[in-house]
Amino acid sequence: MPRPTLLFTGPWADRPLEELVGSLAEWGYTGVELCCWGDHLEIQRALSESDYCQNKLDLLARHELTLNLISNHRVGQAIGDAVIDARHQALVPDYVWGNGEPLGVRQRAIEEMIATIRVAERLGVGLVAGFIGSPLASYVGGWPPPSRDTVESAFEQFAELWYPILDVCRETGIKFALEVHPGQLAYDLYTAQRLLEAVDHHSEFGFLLDPAHLHWQGIDPVAFIRQFPERIWHVHIKDAMLTLDGKSGLLGSFWPQGDARRGWQYRSPGHGGIDWQGFIRALHQIDYAGALAVDWSDPEMDRDFGAADACQFVKRLDFPTKPRPEPGAFRPV
């Protein structure tokens, strides 16, 4: 049976949800991953207005769309970053930013993430995805290097900040999926493993896998799938292409997407360098039964055209598998 094909609404947060959902049905999507910014999902309104959540569900239902999960990447970033500055003011709601005092922003971000979990419970979805930030982000370039104590302290701080959030997850039956991503404390296989260890493999903590964020670093997404078969709770479909010309490298770069000076670019699914056949076969092998959500980004393509094209690509990609033989069953040579 094909997996649900979703659109992550973050790249369309500038468009009212009521306007966007009509396009989603036309493009062929079966559901959405709602972002918690723009008017797509306003956390405090969802908590304070008795009909807010039901109105969102009714809107989606009128277009025969399901709500599979919600994502609050922007607020999560402010929880773990070592430096809170103007970049975060552009990410979080005004009431989370407050007067911008870093400790206050971090505490309000934690409260907002807990509120996000409560809203997920009201909406009847079992998964919240997002970022956690990183106190080690400035060290990833390699110089000046962190001490071993600095690294260990960062993972201990993550556990201290997130245990209260994960306790609410356990209380409500909601799981949290971190998107493994540069700029997060987990951005490759080793850091992802260390992060699990930091929270003692907490039953409510897992991963959102977007292969694009591994591919441009030179990391094999299939290796990640095989390393964490029980912890991959959600999958984004986004592509990337290395554009190395001998003048640029693989660092994240402060040049904007689309700038020819970058060493890599995001691409609409199927238009980049990811081995999608290998990726989907690996998901089949671990019996991943979750959704495939297009997280669309391509600086050189119209986004509405890209969203429609990506939906059809995902549906072609997600081929059905044949039943596996029983252990010990005869197999023809």
Which fold name is given in CATH as the topology? TIM Barrel
Low-pLDDT parts are none
Report Rg. Answer: 20 Å
The structure class reads alpha/beta
Which percent range describes the beta-strand content? 5-15%
Q: Counting H and I runs of at least 4 residues, what is the number of helices? A: 13
| Spatial arrangement of strands, main beta sheet | 1-2-3-4-5-6-7-10
Number of strands: 10
Give the domain tally: 1
CATH C-level class: Alpha Beta
Anisotropy-based shape? globular
CATH superfamily: Divalent-metal-dependent TIM barrel enzymes
Q: How many angstroms does the end-to-end distance come to?
A: 28 Å
One letter per element, helices H and strands E, the order comes to EHEHHEHHHHEHEHEHHEEEHEH
Helix content: 40-55%
Pfam family, one: AP_endonuc_2
Organism: Tuwongella immobilis
Keywords: Isomerase
Protein name: Xylose isomerase-like TIM barrel domain-containing protein
Question: Can you put this structure into words, describing what you see?
Answer:
Residues 24-316 form the Xylose isomerase-like TIM barrel domain. InterPro entries: IolE/XylAMocC-like (IPR050312), Xyl_isomerase-like_sf (IPR036237), Xyl_isomerase-like_TIM-brl (IPR013022). One of its GO terms (molecular function) is isomerase activity. Keywords: Isomerase. This is Xylose isomerase-like TIM barrel domain-containing protein. With 333 residues, this protein is of the alpha/beta class. It has one domain (5-317): Alpha-Beta Barrel (TIM Barrel). Helices cover 41% and strands 14% of the residues. The chain is built from 13 helices and ten strands. An eight-stranded parallel beta barrel has the order 1-2-3-4-5-6-7-10, surrounded by six helices. A two-stranded antiparallel ribbon has the order 8-9. The longest helix is centred in the middle third of the chain and has 25 residues, at 148-172. The two termini are 28 Å apart.
